[in-house]
Write a structure and sequence with these properties.
347 residues, mainly alpha, two-stranded parallel ribbon, two-stranded antiparallel ribbon, elongated
Length: 347
């Protein structure tokens, strides 16, 4: 059974067809079908696709199994709720700015321990900056005098109402995030070893590893090589050349969730003294930090492929031209492996 993929509409169709005794359900990329010789119209579409399938001319796109599709929905929804929580945090800061309270200028996280205590007190009607400063955690860097100056403002009934509603919304989001994280951890119980190995890559933390497994799975047999995985994920640079002139190198569209997670990991890896850090800094100076993060995410994905394929922790490639004397002097980077802390060959 083969059908043409258009947007996200193939997902409910696949869910229905999987309940029938078909030998296999295939989703085909429309770009592949358009390259096939033949006449394709809306009326003849189904018959034409069926004919190509009988000839073996169609190549099936990757369809994750149902458990992985459900895990994807959970992980993506959790990411959406995290973004909503960050948006709510920005709204709280806007309300505080309207009341001339400069809390965000003295503490890094407005919704942290200290911030939450002060916000709750403000919502309950406390306006004395001295009493509000006494609620601060002793570990924060800001002095008491600085806190008192930052908390001296004009908080009236309107601001208290807004803070009360917003804090209730944040508390609700925190409960939902906790419930989703527990469910995701339960579904990934059998993948603890893969999660642990993925977290040995610089810049990859637990939640990023969960996104990676949810998006690509752990069976790398479906991807013949790391290049196929990188291309499928949309991390391969584009090739557009005409008359000997290279034009756009924009990457193709892929999984938005995977791209966001790997790009964030690329930024984090750029702060480490590892091979990935060298890759990031080598490109950031001339191409910008955003492009450097995408390129570093591509190297992370290659390491992910090797780790999941070989079921073991692997060493990164030799530094080669990245670790010449000028880069060692400029960035003070010691040649280390992508995974682990041992020096690379030639360092």
């Amino acid at each position: 059974m083969a059908m043409e993929a258009t947007g996200v509409y193939w997902k409910p169709v696949v869910n229905l067809l999987e309940a029938y005794p078909f030998d296999a359900v295939m989703v085909v990329n429309p770009q592949h079908i358009k390259g096939m010789p033949g006449r394709k119209t809306d009326v003849q579409d189904s018959q034409w696709i069926a004919g190509l399938l009988r000839l073996g001319a169609l190549k099936a796109s990757y369809i994750p199994p149902r458990p992985q599709r459900e895990l994807r929905e959970l992980v993506r929804y959790r990411t959406s709720l995290q973004q909503t929580r960050a948006t709510e945090s920005n709204r709280i800061q806007k309300v505080l700015e309207g009341a001339n309270v400069k809390l965000s200028s003295v503490i890094s996280d407005v919704l942290g321990v200290t911030g939450h205590r002060i916000l709750a007190a403000l919502a309950d009607g406390e306006t004395d900056p001295t009493k509000l400063a006494d609620l601060a955690d002793p570990r924060i860097r800001a002095s008491r005098e600085t806190l008192i100056a930052a908390l001296t403002g004009l908080v009236n009934t309107h601001q208290r109402l807004m803070l009360r509603v917003q804090l209730q919304h944040v508390a609700f989001l925190d409960r939902q995030l906790t419930a989703l994280s527990q469910e995701i951890a339960t579904r990934l119980t059998n993948f603890d070893d893969a999660l642990a190995r993925l977290q040995t890559i610089p810049g990859v933390e637990r939640r990023t590893a969960e996104v990676i497994i949810a998006e690509i799975g752990t069976d790398m047999q479906r991807f013949p090589s790391a290049g196929h995985l990188v291309s499928w994920a949309g991390f391969s640079p584009g090739q557009d050349e005409s008359a000997g002139k290279a034009r756009s190198t924009r990457t193709r569209k892929g999984s938005k969730a995977l791209r966001a997670a790997l790009t964030q990991s690329g930024h984090a890896a750029g702060k480490t003294k590892t091979y990935l850090g060298v890759v990031y800094h080598r490109l950031a100076g001339r191409r910008g930090k955003k492009r450097a993060a995408v390129a570093t995410g591509r190297h992370i994905l290659i390491a992910v492929y090797a780790i999941l394929r070989d079921s073991e922790t692997v060493q990164g490639p030799a530094m080669g031209p990245f670790m010449d004397r000028s880069y060692r002097t400029r960035y003070r980077v010691k040649a280390t492996a992508i995974v682990g802390s041992g020096p690379l060959e030639g360092a």
